[in-house]
Structure formats: structure tokens, C-alpha cells
Design a protein that fits this description.
The chain has 6 helices and no strands. The protein has one domain.
């Protein structure tokens, strides 16, 4: 059942993104930013933990999950460090994912020859 929930949750998030691309004039970059912000806002409202509990990886892997990780990291850091945690919590909580993205991007840039799209 966990796999089905993850598939449904991730599929719903992707379907919403596709509808936004098809039916609005929003650029993909703005939609991606909106997903991260939505994850932060839903976490602040206390809603996203329920989505994560139901959807599992389908809720934590998409960009809304990145926003959830940022907000959760800030909440934890603020409770431990106070005001300074606002600035350090999100970066600390997502450092592994950001470092992996940079490392894999560099690796593939070194392995492949860049060329024009045309």
C-alpha cells in the first residue's frame, strides 16, 4: 500500500504541475519555485506532515518535499539555536541534497561533451 500511496501522491503533484504548464502562462521555473514555496507554507500550516505520512517518498522527493525539508530544518534549528536558526536551519537540513546535485552535475558535465541543442 505504501508504494501505491507514493505513486498517487507523486502523480498528483506532477499532474498539477503539468496542468499549470499547459493551462497558464507560468514558466516552468516559476512553477518549480511555487512548489518549493508551497511545501514551506504547507509545513508552516502543519498540513505537509500529514501529506508526507500518507504519500511517503511521493511527498518527499518532489520539490514540495524540498520546501518541507527547508521548513522542518528551520523549525528544528530555531528550537535549538533561537533566532540564528532562521538563517542556518534550512541550509543545514538540505545540505546533503544540494551537495549531491552539484556533485552529480559536475560529474556528468565532465563525462559528456557539451553541444548546441540545434
Amino acid at each position: 500500500m505504501e508504494y501505491l500511496n507514493a505513486f498517487l501522491c507523486g502523480g498528483i503533484l506532477c499532474a498539477i504541475g503539468q496542468i499549470l504548464i499547459d493551462k497558464t502562462k507560468l514558466t516552468p521555473a516559476r512553477i518549480l519555485v511555487a512548489y518549493v514555496v508551497a511545501g514551506v507554507v504547507l509545513t508552516a500550516l502543519g498540513i505537509y506532515p500529514y501529506i508526507e505520512q500518507w504519500g511517503g517518498a511521493g511527498a518527499t522527493v518532489p520539490l514540495t518535499g524540498f520546501g518541507y525539508s527547508l521548513a522542518k530544518g528551520v523549525q528544528k534549528a530555531v528550537s535549538e539555536q533561537g533566532f540564528l536558526g532562521i538563517f542556518t536551519g534550512g541550509i543545514t537540513a538540505t545540505a546533503g541534497g544540494v551537495a549531491a546535485a552539484i556533485s552529480f552535475g559536475l560529474l556528468f558535465a565532465l563525462l559528456r561533451q557539451p553541444r548546441d541543442k540545434a
